[in-house]
Write a structure and sequence with these properties.
Shape: extended
CATH architecture of one domain: Alpha Horseshoe
Number of helices: 18
Number of strands: 0
């Protein structure tokens, strides 16, 4: 019933209604779903809304960008950004930063165009040679990549979270084997944004991926853990320290505890396995200092750990391995479990698992 929807839009536009967003959203919905819609007509509608004051300039621009992306109208989107770039350069108080950001989005469009060409080049070098890219296509892909990378590099002149552009730039540099340039880009990005967590993560993961600067990248990893104790890379650092020292430490125990206290990680099998394994080994090796640290940790956090981590009402969607980890930890520490261990055993029985076998299997995995 597009005709009826169009009539409603006309009535809203003609009347004095405070329905700016409704007009814009309903109009974009119409254009997204109508078979006769086109980028030209949609752009006309968006510009009309902006001229009438029916919507904010940024909101209308974003709606048009989303429309073009959904319909893969990259050519029209490129024209849109180029037009804005030309208009911005004519302004008296033009900003070099804004200029480079617009060029960055042009680089994103180049990146989108480059991806299938890069995939074709990979196929031509692999088993699917017949489906791979021709020499002309490979050259075309290289030209597009160079144009995109030039646009992305300009953003390194400014401070700011340009993660979306940097990730694409690194992907292209790695694809063509320019590892030194990629490393230099990431270092420069980190220098410009020393407080950015992602800047540290990008450099660390790059160095790890290519096995570069082993000792230095651990320093980056340690800093990441300090900046974000709930980050999954905390487990990487803990495993590194564990392998280096041959066991757990007081610092590692507290880092894992902080990691598990994050809501997203509260049922992390890797985290609970590490904590449980450390406690078991502390008993076997008679590491009194580490065992005392674990008991002190429980003493400090038991007030909220019991309802948060050791509630007797086990979630049906929970992982039995995590339950066993927690139950084993409580047994090793010899603390009042408030019925948690028996709840785990009952739940395992309901699932049809033999409790003893389940504990033994878990112990073997540790």
């Amino acid at each position: 019933k597009f005709g009826e929807l169009a009539q409603v839009l006309e009535a809203l536009t003609a009347g004095m209604y405070a329905a700016d967003q409704l007009i814009l959203k309903a109009g974009m919905l119409l254009f997204e779903n109508h078979e006769l819609s086109s980028p030209h007509r949609t752009n006309f509608f968006v510009r009309h809304c902006r001229c009438l004051g029916a919507a904010d300039k940024k909101a209308t621009a974003l709606e048009y960008i989303i429309y073009c992306l959904k319909r893969s109208e990259h050519a029209h989107l490129r024209t849109f950004f180029q037009d804005h770039l030309r208009v911005h350069r004519k302004m008296i108080r033009k900003s070099e930063r804004v200029d480079h950001i617009l060029r960055g989005y042009l680089g994103i469009l180049d990146y989108i165009e480059w991806l299938p060409l890069a995939s074709g080049q990979v196929a031509s070098e692999g088993e699917n040679a017949e489906e791979g890219a021709t020499g002309a296509e490979a050259y075309h892909g290289l030209t597009i990549a160079a144009r995109a990378m030039d646009n992305f590099r300009m953003l390194l002149d400014h401070e700011g979270p340009f993660d979306i552009f940097i990730v694409k730039l690194i992907h292209m540099l790695e694809f063509y084997g320019h590892l030194d340039k990629a490393e230099s880009v990431l270092e420069e990005y980190l220098d410009k944004n020393p407080e950015s967590l992602n800047a540290h993560i990008y450099l660390y993961t790059f160095l790890k991926r290519h096995n570069l600067r082993a000792e230095e990248r651990i320093d980056f990893l340690h800093k990441i853990c300090g900046m974000d104790p709930s980050n999954a890379l905390v487990l990487d650092y803990i495993e590194y320290i564990y392998g280096l020292e041959g066991g757990g430490s007081a610092e590692s125990v507290r880092m894992v505890a902080d990691f598990l206290d994050s809501f997203d990680n509260k049922d992390s099998l890797e985290g609970w396995t590490w904590l449980c394994r450390t406690a078991v080994q502390a008993v076997h090796r008679k590491e009194k200092q580490l065992l005392a640290c674990l008991k002190q940790l429980w003493k400090e956090r038991r007030g909220y750990w019991r309802p948060y981590h050791f509630g007797v009402r086990l979630q049906p969607t929970g992982r039995p391995e995590v339950w066993i980890c927690k139950a084993t930890l409580l047994r090793v520490l010899k603390v009042d479990d408030r019925g948690y261990v028996s709840s785990v055993e009952e739940r395992l029985a309901e699932l049809g698992a033999d409790t003893v076998d389940a504990y033994n299997t878990f112990a073997e995995k540790m």
